[in-house]
Amino acid sequence: MDVILQVSGLRFATGEGILVLDDVSFGVPRDGTALVVGPASSGKTVLLKLLLRELTPSGGQILMLGRNVARLSPTKVTQLRRRVGYMPEQPAILSHRTVLDNLEFKLRALATPLEEMPDLVNRALQLARLEEEDQSLAEELSPLQHKQLALASAMVTEPPLLLCDDPLRDLGTDGQETILELLHGVRSAGTALVLTARDSEPARSLVQVAPQGTVVRLRQEAVL
Amino acid sequence: MKAGLGFIVWDGLRALLGAVGRGAAWSVAIAAVLLAGTAVVLLPDHEEARQPETQLIVLAYLERDLSEDDINRLAWEAWRWPEVSHQGFRFVGENEPKEIQRRALVLHVEDEQARIEVEDRMAAADGVAGVEQLRRTLTPPPRLPPASRIGALIGLVGALAATVVLARWSMAAMASRWNNELALLRQTGLRESVLRLPFLAAGALVGLTGAALYLGCYWGVWAWAQQVPVVLDAAPALETGGPMATAIGILVALLLGLLGALLGYPPRHHHS
After folding, report:
1. Chain B nearest-CA residue for A95
2. Which of A110, A120, A157 should be substituted to probe chain B, the one whose Cβ sees the most B Cβ atoms within 10 Å?
């Protein structure tokens, strides 16, 4: 099986010695899905930050896109990050710019060739169903559309792996259904997913995205 | 893909445009640092004992029909006399060391004995119609007191403190206006060293603006001092220090701007 992410015996303790994650292991095949479920402060966001090397693990190993994340130099980490989409719990939105400008800003900052930008932007807009809103200011969008824009921004570089931190949070039932459909679309397009959710209804909904996916249950090791 | 550094710097600098007033104040503070520093260097650090100077001068009036070659010959002969410290030629109408009624050679001598000898030789020389001696005492112009240098030092410290405060103030305004962009770039995985670039560019721009202000003031004073000799007498190094002031001014202003950008760059938790 072609694995895009393999986490083995992952352990993380804070500088004060508080154990947050202990012996977490799971794998995600290429175009597969992992759902990380756990109560508040169980370390879901910490896990994603470890995958992104924003934090350094205390033990264990992360193999992502064929690389041992812990051993990468800062330059290699930056290169790896560009191949991993990240939709944080509180995504950064350029509120005074249009949807189109939001996506182009990211591509320009990553020195994407100009001739590639229109296609990348259009595909991201289609994926997030924001084609009709491309000229709207981000500050005029609804909370759901903000999530859609965050998804488009995370996917505009067409990464093979997308990390989503609690993507259904703060959404109503209709909004959750829309995001679930969009995540289905992302997975169908061949992108592997790592999703996080609390032990609640949203988590059960997210399982529907990939019924055969891996479910990782985190218990509360420490109050963060 | 590599980071679009040019785009990131340009987009960040546009955020500074929204805080142009603070950037301008920061530039003025940098110019003030340089001006105060220049004053510290140029102003005297001790009271010089400057006594009135007595000059002994022999004026040799030339015959009206004396040719230019004969005048040159006479002048060269006088120049070889060891008693003559320096000499010059005056046309009618000039007024140094006194109002000249007839073409004359002006010979400065060191002491009374030398004056007598030079006066006798000139009186006996061909082409000299008459000789006059002149004694005058020159009082040195007043100089700025050493306390003015202490004032400049205090100004330097104050301007440096203002530079640090304004740098932090300007960078905070820039970070506030570029807050969402910074957060997005961080979520994209760009390193802090890359995200600092627009701030460093803004610091360099502000520093160079401060240098331009400083150099405008320096060369303005320099041009004015050419018309007012007492200024050059108070700070003689002003006359020749221009190139050095220009080079050091640009360098120091650039460093102050970059240092201010580094000091003023807000910690991550302020804008993430």
Report:
1. B180
2. A110
